[in-house]
Design brief:
With 500 residues, this protein is mainly beta. Helix content is 10%, strand content 43%. It has a 16-stranded antiparallel barrel with strand order 6-8-9-10-11-12-13-14-15-16-17-18-19-20-21-22. Strand 19 and strand 20 form a beta hairpin.
Length: 500
Amino acid sequence: MRAKVRMWIRNDSRRTSCLAEEPVETVRAIQPMRCPAADPVETGLCARGTLCLPSRGYKHRALRSSLLFLCGSRRISEYRRWGFPSPFVLRPPSFVRAFLALSVGIMSVGPVFAQAQQVPIPEETSTAPQLDVAGVGVATLDALRPRNPLPGGGTASGSQVNFADSALLIGAAQRLYRGAIGSVAFGGLATDENNTGNKTSFFIHQLFADYQSKTLEGYVGRTDTPAAQLVQFPTLRGDDLVTFTSLLDPFSNGDSQEEHRYSNVAAVVLNQSLKSFENVHVQHLIDSSGAGGPGDTGLNSFGVTFQWLNLPAMAPVQRVVSYGAGFEHRSVGGADGGASNAVYGGGEINLRRSLTNRIDLRAQDILTFGNDLTAFRNVSDTFRANGNSVAAAVRYLHSPFGVPGYQLSLTGGYRSYARVHDAGSYGVALTGVKRLGQGFDAVAQYLYERRNSALSAAYGGAPTEQSIQLGFIFNFDATFNQHIGPRRSLLNLQHQYIPE
């Protein structure tokens, strides 16, 4: 074993302050040195057991003081060779000399001999996770016509204060090995049932862990269904006209519209240059109707989607903004008409490309087949039966000086059934949003929906529904300890109004 001892040297008969690192044998580090006639070292122990330390001008005064206290000191001689400060020459007791010799040997050999066994590798101090908090508050005053009958008797109210679809989300992200990003998100939103004041629970719509690399992404948990990520329509709330704009959950009992938009998903997503995305996934569609048995949590759907996205910064000036298609298989039991398959596709294009006065068109078609139902026994059957849903929206967005100002949109949808007669429906939504400040909008919407007799009988209400909604929307997104940029932001998981 070899070590290095720092020594003062003389060069060309002149006093120098340079330090040379001379390799010597570890054992020789405590072999005879001329003391006090030899060159002094910072901490040297000679063969006679004499410890030589400079008396002043050295950085190791604490060590010197400690040794003087332990050993006692006697000034033997003054050493002023080459003009260096005088050293103290100490002769400690024999047991102290043995301890010091052992300590010097251990320090020279290194930490391998200084410890009896290997210690655990200490954890690396990593950067604290990036934290995100986002939320959307939607509050409107609604006027409803007609007043539909309630299941327990009586009729529904003709007006209400509506804060459904308000949500709060919390997320964290961390840089992983090889440049990947790991993140987690948790969020809940208010449902229509909360408007009555009797329900205080939130619907958990986001709770997933996500791994992202440059070309690969994998996520597991509760989030948007892959079909819902294809096209977003500019209605006031995400569940407005949901029976036309979403692939319906055949296991839902119809009480919560959110069950058509969110599910428990495990997915792997491949991408090419962050523009083309292929999503392979399995799902547990929320089974509130009990079709799969009480407490069933098994996988009941699988599918694949493809989507192409233009660069967000180029979306206002490019003709094609996005497009995609997908296939889904839902394992519906034989008692409910058997398995249901779905193919769907849609996209968005700019009718008028402009940074200040943009007009875009969004369209989507959803075709379901494979189920054998020919009549509706309840609302759940309307989600399972073979049908075709078409939805489209035209939006005008005015953004003076590149800052969102206001938007007007018209959204329409039509749904028909292949094996159930007189069960068609259609609906329209006229929506206006005015930006009042950063993240704060004034909103107004007129919503109309009509159902034919077979469908309205299944819903147990009037064939037509109308509503006028006036209110405000506030959305925010705050990031703490920002040091990475995951592709999924929390606000992107929410229904969009005026894009930032």
